[in-house]
């Protein structure tokens, strides 16, 4: 009986062993990818707290003898980083929320409402996604001048809300196009109108996907450089990325301050990502299950 049990258990156990063996290359590849992403950030963080003398003597890969914070302090004061931080959070947060709301409204009309010319409308949004920002610089500059919005944070919020909502609309239209029609019909039989169906049924069910879009829109807008550089010329309205680029162009920073600037520029986005990491993971997992 023991031999028979082993014989029966042997073939059944082999697939599990093979699956476990196949996972090792994937884990190794993920570990290598994580190193490629984490190591540059650690090098920047180490050099940000290193004195210029240590950097010149020992190079960028050496550990500092102590914490040298003058580079962080000098950069913060030189570019008025606190104001730039407020501008970036205000613009990125407003764009993320407004773009999600606009995407939901558009996708509800396209995916569930089934408006006429749905294919052509989706093609328009796809075109908006692939259109390079360099092609938008002069039209947006001219329109903002004519509208009296040039060099205002509102102009950048409007532009990026439309740009990000184009991608959000395209994505959500595909998601809402597969939304269970039985749920919507049941809600309408119970007397719910279109707005009630949207805000009480569609939005709660789609909340994980909307959370993913919110995180992506915030980070994408935070990292934008070209359009804010053109649209925001005054020091009081500039974002973090623009301040970093302008100061680098003036060649006023040494290696330590350059690393301090890079650290301060990327750290808020990383913190935001870590805070909403559970929302992002949940949204991706729900999308995979669906």
From TrEMBL:
Pfam family, one: BPD_transp_1
Domain ABC transmembrane type-1: 85-276
InterPro entries referenced in this protein's UniProt entry, alphabetically: MetI-like (IPR000515), MetI-like_sf (IPR035906)
GO term, biological process aspect, one: transmembrane transport
Keyword annotations from UniProtKB, A to Z: Cell membrane, Membrane, Transmembrane, Transmembrane helix, Transport
Segments crossing the lipid bilayer: 24-46, 85-108, 120-142, 154-176, 197-222, 257-276
Sequence similarity: Belongs to the binding-protein-dependent transport system permease family.
Full protein name: Carbohydrate ABC transporter permease
Species: Streptomyces spongiae
Source species taxonomy: Bacteria, Bacillati, Actinomycetota, Actinomycetes, Kitasatosporales
